[in-house]
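Example 9 (inverse folding). The structure is encoded as follows.
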């Protein structure tokens, strides 16, 4: 699955180029870590942001390719300082319940996520673990106007076989 994700993402992005109506946008978010990630950063909330495009597929369906960056603040745990960042390239499928791109929607996403976990010891020695894995997300949102929306999204990915990097994200989206 790890090697198939970039191919699937490229196919989704290429397919979206034929969509009738496209718009660019930005999003800002606040991420709450879950699972192993929550322990790593001591539960600290982190800001994030990104760029996206929306492509209207008709009948209340949108495809949203996106690029996100999230930084979870440094946590001091014993004699260690730890922080985490993620860079995500993916695409979301949005289904609007009203049958047109307005109001309430559900979102499903697939992405390639690059996680970087840094640990600094009291001696100043720093180590960084970085990995790229498939990320999955689902959420619910509301498009309040043609340009302004809000979304609550849960994301799941792995950093290693023994470390899950899950987040609950609250987002504000702007489309131009």
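The amino acid assigned to each position is listed next.
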């Amino acid at each position: 699955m790890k090697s198939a994700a970039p191919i699937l993402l490229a196919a989704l992005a290429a397919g979206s180029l034929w969509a009738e109506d496209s718009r660019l946008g930005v999003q800002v978010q606040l991420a709450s870590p879950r699972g192993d990630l929550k322990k790593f950063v001591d539960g600290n909330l982190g800001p994030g942001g990104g760029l996206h495009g929306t492509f209207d597929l008709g009948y209340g369906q949108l495809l949203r390719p996106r690029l996100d960056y999230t930084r979870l603040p440094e946590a001091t745990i014993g004699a260690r300082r730890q922080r985490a960042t993620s860079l995500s390239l993916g695409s979301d499928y949005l289904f609007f319940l009203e049958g047109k791109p307005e109001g309430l929607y559900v979102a499903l996403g697939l992405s390639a996520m690059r996680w970087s976990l840094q640990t600094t010891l009291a001696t100043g020695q720093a180590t960084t673990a970085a990995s790229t894995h498939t990320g999955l997300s689902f959420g619910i949102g509301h498009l309040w106007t043609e340009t302004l929306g809000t979304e609550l999204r849960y994301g799941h990915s792995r950093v290693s076989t023994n470390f899950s990097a899950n987040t609950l994200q609250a987002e504000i989206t702007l489309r131009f």
